Amino acid sequence: MTVRVVLADDHEFFRSGFKAALQTQPDLDCVADVGDGRAAVDEVMRLTPDVAVLDVRMPILDGLGAAETILRAGSPTRILLLTTYDDESYLYRALQAGASGFLLKSMPTEELLGAIRIAARGDALIDPSVTRRLIARIAAELAPVPEPPEVDRLTAREREILLELGRGRSNAEIAAALYVGDQTVKTHVSRVLAKLGLRDRVQAVVYVHEHNLLP
Q1: What is the CATH number that goes with domain 144-210?
Q2: Which residues contact 81 (CB under 8 A, 6 or more apart)?
């Protein structure tokens, strides 16, 4: 299956270079590339690509605004946000909007291409260099709230998995921490997301910290 991608970045040099890298991949197809957030929204709505890669800082409408507009419209397109900044406030807005990933432009091209494939599969990816700082910020700023009743629907193991997701751990890290196999973790993650009505593991991170579920 070919993953259809819309690329939006106002830096033409980066955009043309990344588009060229996309076009070398047999399973990835850049169906449109634009230089501002409004054009990105228009192209995503017109083409319904599998993944939209949006720069955070763009004219007319920034990447976060474009992501929020696309996701509010109910588009099935997965959103990956790119930035040269690792400010947690950008990441938190992106997570709240429902973005599937927040990545730094300094990442190697192969990792950025891999992130597109991960997003297209319905998984989510956050650059690990900002995840733990984000978690610390959310935990420090949120006031205690009652535990939501839907958490009671989780088994003891599923609750453990949810808390590990909240710590920003990958499936492999969760498997090692709980002494189970990767496939077992994947199964539990899917069940947790379904029971809590969460779109992906990124929303699970937000959920855990908004409800102060971590001890």
Answers
A1: 1.10.10.10
A2: 54, 55, 56, 63, 64, 67, 90, 94, 99, 101, 102, 103
